[in-house]
Every structure is written in C-alpha cells, then in structure tokens.
Amino acid sequence: MFVAGATGVLGRRLVRRLVARGHSAVGLTRTEAGDQIVRSLGGEPRRADLFDADALTNAAEGCSVVVHVATAIPTKLRTNRKDWAENDRIRREGTKCLTTAAARVGAGAYLQQGIVWAVRGPDGQTFDEDAHPVNDPILASSLDGERIAREAGAAHGFRTAILRCGGFYSSDGWHTRIFGESLVRGRPVLVDGGSAIWSWIHADDAATAFLAASEWPKSGVWHVVDDRPVALSDYLGALARRLGARPPRHLPRSLAHLVLGRYTAELLTSSFATSNARFRSDFRWQPAYPTFAEGLDEVVAAWQSEGFPRGKATRP
Ligand SMILES: NC(=O)c1ccc[n+]([C@@H]2O[C@H](COP(=O)([O-])OP(=O)(O)OC[C@H]3O[C@@H](n4cnc5c(N)ncnc54)[C@H](OP(=O)(O)O)[C@@H]3O)[C@@H](O)[C@H]2O)c1
Hints:
Radius of gyration: 19 Å
Strand order of the largest sheet: 3-2-1-4-5-8-13
CATH topology of the domain at 2-171 and 201-225 and 275-287: Rossmann fold
Shape: globular
Bound molecules: NADP nicotinamide-adenine-dinucleotide phosphate
C-alpha cells in the first residue's frame, strides 16, 4: 500500500495499522525526518513530491492500493483565501498526480480523504452521502478532488473510494490542541452559544476506516464519523471539564468574523450532522470511540501524560 501523507496525524496511524496487519506500507516522504517517522512505524519511506507524477510513479512502484491523506490545512485560526491555496493545490493537482501514478503502477484501488461538511442537508438537517455540495470556494477543492479521483478510476479501471471524514480530533491534532489550549487560557471558542451540531471522528477511528477500505476496496463515497453528532457547546464543555477549565466562553456572531475570520466563524456556526451507517454496513467497521465522550477521555489522558496544555500550543 502507498500512503501519501504518511508522516501526518492520520497517515502515521494508518501506516502503523497496515504494518500491524501484515501489509507492506510504503510512505511518501519529503525529508530525512519524514523517512525516520515512516521507518519508526515499520513502513518503507520513499521520497517524492505530491506535484510530481513521475516521481510519484517511481515511489509507488509495486503498490496495489494508493491512499491520499496528505494535506496542508492552515494551522492558524484566522485564515484568508491565500492561506488555503496550498491545500487546494494538494486536493486538485495532488490528486491528479497521485491518480496518474496509481494508473501507471497498475494499482487496483485508490482511496481519497474528503470532508463531510463539503456537502450539507437543507436547514441543518442530518444528511447522508447523497447530500448536495456546499457553495463555498474553500470547500470546492475537496469536491473537485473527489471528482478527479472518480474520473481517473473510471478512465484507468481502478476502484475509487472517497472517505469523507467528520471533524477530526486527536491528542496530536493541531485543531484539537488549539481548542484545549484556548479553553485552559479562557479564550472564547464558541460563537453564538455553540448550538451548531457537528459529527466528529477520532483520528484512530479514521485510520481504521482507511485500513478497512484498503483491505476491501470498493468504489463509492462514505461518511466516516462516530455514532453521535453533538452540539459544539456540549463537545467543548466536555473537553473543558476534563481539563479542569471553566465552561467555554462565547463570542457574539457580530465579533466572530473580525476575531476569527470568515471561514472559522462560519464553520463554528454551521451544523453538519451525518451518519456512519453506510460505511459501517459496507465495511463491517465500527468506531473504537463511539462518541466524543470516550474519545475526549483518551485525548485528555494522553495530554496529561505529556503535561499539555501549558504554554503555547505547538504541533507535537
Ligand atoms: N476532518 C477533519 O476535521 C480534518 C482536520 C484536519 C485534517 N483532515 C484531513 O485529514 C488528512 C490528514 O490530516 P493530518 O492532520 O494528518 O495532516 P498533517 O498532520 O498536517 O499531515 C499532512 C501530511 O501531508 C503531507 N504533505 C503536505 N504537503 C505535501 C506535498 N506537497 N507532498 C507530499 N506530502 C505532503 C505532509 O508531509 P510532510 O511531513 O512532508 O510535510 C504530511 O504527511 C488530510 O487529508 C486532511 O484533509 C481532516
């Protein structure tokens, strides 16, 4: 199996699980530090850039499944269009190059990571994989990546599985750490009461979902989320309690755009409640952390053992 993004939060977990299941795991890397990470997980590092189809073809030689979990999501709260440009390029051009490589090495399957909030139900209702795309330029590249992958699979005869993940959280995930640090420091993390409902997924469970999809390749789109969508105020309130912090502070909507920027403010006020029913049934998968409650217990236990949050939240 070939994993692009092998050194990331999701990729590291996937490589470890592939190796534990006896698969050969080849991890795409760009640096010596990346090579060491992949080796430490039992995988084989191979160097290439995601925007170089020839180099990717060499790196993926001999792999029957190609997985795209690379990303460059901005690690700051207030973002503008420019901050998302590299991530857009990874989703569009990166997918094009990686699917080209998959075709050239004769892979039988290609897995692509997506996000559940790129589609939505009407009026914030619970939705499934068939819901309509959201009209937002920052989300468009995720759906473009899905389309590019699907079209390549159809043209070259490999299976294409799109796994749209819910809100991703883990002790080593930047976004989870910034929430934890903000709560401990008493910074506002909610907008307008935090009534938006989100579907979450612990990064460990996202990795087992990719593992299942790589072992039983099928074509289609699936939502990989836990069992219970939850209001942001309940999720962050539960995180605050576990950290011994005060209840989350709120920002009024009128200030949120100024303080957090448009994208973060809108995300924090948007509901995306969806279900894992299709993925569970098609891949006989179930999350180890069925709700945020079990998942946050694990996150905060891991943080306690490393003495986090203290000081400035940094990428581990
Ligand atoms: N659903 C959610 O809430 C959510 C939140 C965050 C992320 N995600 C998704 O989850 C997936 C994994 O995210 P993550 O947290 O694991 O990200 P991460 O920890 O930041 O890792 C990013 C990975 O992408 C690789 N990468 C970036 N640019 C590259 C390039 N030009 N060529 C080759 N590799 C490149 C990085 O490699 P280097 O080590 O060489 O930099 C790294 O392995 C992504 O698909 C992302 O979209 C979802």
